[in-house]
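User: Earlier you gave me the apo prediction for this protein. Now I'd like the version with zinc ion bound, so I can compare the two side by side. Same sequence as before, with the ligand SMILES added.
Assistant: Got it. Here's the input I'm using:
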Amino acid sequence: MDVDHTAEELASALGVTKQEVKADLEALLEFDVPLDEAAQSVRRKHGGASGSSPAPEPLSISDITTEHGSVTVTARVLTQGTRTIRYQGDDQTIREGTLADGTGTISYTAWQDFGFEAGDSLVVGNAGVREWDGHPELNLGQSTTVSMADETVEVDQPVGGDSDLIDLAPGDRGRNVEVNVQDVDSRTIDGRDGETTILSGVLADETARLPFTDWDPHPDIKGGASLRIEDVYIREFRGSPSVNLSEFSTVTPLDGTVTVADSAPRLSIAEAVDNGGLFDVEVVGNVLEVRDGSGLIERCPECGRVVQNGQCRTHGAVEGEDDLRIKAIVDDGTDSVTAIIGTDLTEEIYGGDIADAKAAAREAMDKEVVADAIREELVGGAYRVRGSLSVDEYGANLNVDEFEAATEEPVDRARAVLAEVRP
Ligand SMILES: [Zn+2]
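And here is the structure of the complex with zinc ion:
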């Protein structure tokens, strides 16, 4: 327990700034007052209840606002995840998840181990309220009391954290999944403690596919393995949820094989883009345009970025390596995305490999003939496109895994759009 941490908790519980609390604490510590006692003094100074005073009036979860300094709630633990965070230079193990009662749910962070588990019904006394992203959250710290409730708290939400991949969202904690490992790679990164090895790849169940990172590699994570993984947390990765495993996650091989979705969810482009990003999605639309930078291109051998006039933006003058790719604008009448098609699919669409493309470019003395041939092939056609969608300030990009002529009619409005741009 250090000054910073105590100041943070007090500030949260008392509704004053951390700087103010910390200054008060440090003034007292100057006189060799023990930290605990200093905390009580600061609490009294700011009108908070001292540790021995009665806890605040009980509230329903839906009545908790960011205006409350601290609250008492009777609630069910829906989920509990364990994580180590680096806090002011020290590793600290925290527990976080969601509490619920009959009126709603609220996220919590427990700064010490109170010994409760998902499914427990608790009376949580004197929990600090802090604001996160405009919503109240509970901080369970040294002045919080936790005891078992006399009766089970009935809730509408599922208890325990078992989740389908499709239902996971960034910010979820303490979730359990049953998945098949579709793809896994090991790589070395520069972590906060120097070089460390992590695993990353793709997990799938019957509902979806999601990327994952295992920050503390578990030996059972192997390609093709069907696993139950407990205590994962979800972060956003390139606009889509990603599953994260830590040293606290447990991995258990399953007897059977987890059934895997063989198709991606089909969405309109507007729905997909509104989502902010999707790891695996399918759209059907018309190719309106094949953009500049398609066809025969050169990539930096160092970083793989496209080289223009022999210059990489990061590595300066480089000897570029030839590649084929397509950047196609796909529109379904609701919105458009830039579909980015890699080497293999581009070769199929072009009907030749990189050597063929170079030969054609040499003959015409113009690289653009390759892009032109691709334009001829694609523009105006309707395609089913599956891939990973990311959305940023420059627009929506769909990194294509599957690209094929649509067997169904393109939506009428998309045709109307096409008539406008290609009269
Ligand atoms: Zn480069």
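For your comparison, keep in mind: Residues 269-421 form a domain with the OB fold (Dihydrolipoamide Acetyltransferase, E2P) fold (CATH 2.40.50.140).
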